[in-house]
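WARN no homologs supplied; continuing
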Amino acid sequence: MVFSVAIGTAMAASLIALSMDVSSKVSNELRAFGANILVEPKIEGLADITGQKRYLRQDDIVKSKVIFWRHNILGVAPFLESEATSVFGGKKEHVKLLGIWYSKKLPLPGETETFEAGVKSVSPWWNVNGAWPDSNSRNVAVGVSFASRSGVKKGDSLKLDGADFVVSGIVDTGGAEDDQVLMDIDTLQEFKGLRGKVSKVLVSALTTPMDEFAYKDQTTMSKAEYEKWYCTGYVTSIAKQLEEVFHNSRVKPIWQVAATEGKVLEKLSFLMYLLCFISLSASALGVSTTMIMSLLRRVDEIGLMKAVGADSAKIIAIFLSEGVVIGIAGGFAGYLLSIGAAKFIGIKVFNTAFEHRAVLFPVALGSALFISLSGMVLPIKRALRIKSAVVLKGSE
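OK structure emitted
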């Protein structure tokens, strides 16, 4: 019975440990599937109607690491979009240019450390056959579709608006970039006279799953509600804080990504609690079955106790005291097992151990007592139905 309680407790406690950290772990894993926030210039009035180009300031990128949720910002990637006429092998065509940083170290405001910005931090699946273009050379990378259509190969010279560039690599992203020409942002800014400007910024941030409160209209919130919303890591509140630091910007969540993350985390949490309930129930059933077998061996003793004056309360106290002892012993053992189980699951699934929390000990002990005492309910009912006269007569 102690073993059964220990196993059930270990399962319950380790699952609870997983549920406490699984949101951040899974959200971190999902960040490999792309950014969840888009920062773009705010275009209003006549500029919007006439389709005038507006840009963000490149200097504002480092400010994403000074907001309240700065530690949740895992990746920032600026992009500069432009156009040019390419010439290769006598073939001329109109092509879209995309300025990027693949990986660039930027200083953290007010600190000596740096953080990594660029495509690598938000779109790690981008692949290049060759080398990424850098700001110290006139190199470009071309998308696989453009390369296949034009016949351009790595090492070839490509003319863009009359200027010569060397193709350093062939890029495969699975998106619109496969039909574009990519170069370093600084190079494209100089080439097109757009120094210090970017077209958009993609941000990858760890977020709290959206709940009913997160969708509440900010304009109708009280001061206390707004502070709660602002200080919770919803994708909307992080977007709001980014909008405050990017000059003349419009920041919005990429809802396809954000909504999917929320649904995944919600279903995963439900699965954790369901498995926890099942493990507790199975352990309680094991205790109950074993205790009934023990009861059958002690029928004569219980009948004799009742014959000499033991009432129902004393019979119940005996079984409950056994349940408490079994629960405490199983709880201690289960708690120790849960530490190893949670660490094993964390390393195997997320490549990192889950944080040990002191609250798990009372949780484990409480779970063990719940298992053992729940398992005593049926045996107690059976014991109270024992007739002392029938038992003693049958044992003569």
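The mean pLDDT is 83.
OK
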